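Okay, can you check this protein?
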Amino acid sequence: MAAGRNIGVAVDFSPCSKNALRWAAANLASSGDRLILIHVKASYQYEQGVAHLWERDGSPLIPMLELSDPRVSKIYGLAVDRETLEILTRAAGQRCVQVFAKVLWGDPARKLTEAVHKLPLHWLVVGNRGLGTVKRYLFSSFMLIDLADRLIDDHCTDLELMVVGVRVLMGSVSTYVVNHAACPVTVVRENMLPSAQPASY
């Protein structure tokens, strides 16, 4: 039997990332796969010397059984909440997947992209909060004015316009990851149901 896949899910324990985790567990994870939560933290302010061991390459893979241990949480600065643990327990039991977590330190977009190579990942799932209706309308209006100016000046191609349009709909982290990751990336909207089909790139 072939080895299972490594499916990465970017998590910050927000409702958006939990929805991405639910979607990955329901739609991608299969028996024998490894579901790897990837949590990126900006700073290295942990127990003296501990985080510096993993500053460049991140923590070792942390098995699911250790995720609820307060000592492990303190070492890695990882606070996994009850809802996330329930999602993981369900995925492990119903989908027969192994669950791990990995903590990385640095810029989220770059670290997620690097994780694709270093783990390596066969698929990466990221959440996307999206803009609120009013913010989306205002931002899109300004973008459309800018795009119209660019078209008039004839300085950009249809492809460039499409890329700018995608950036309007996705956040900066998901846009970077979609454009730089060397594996398929699925972007899951915060309000998307686990059975819905999100955009995959």
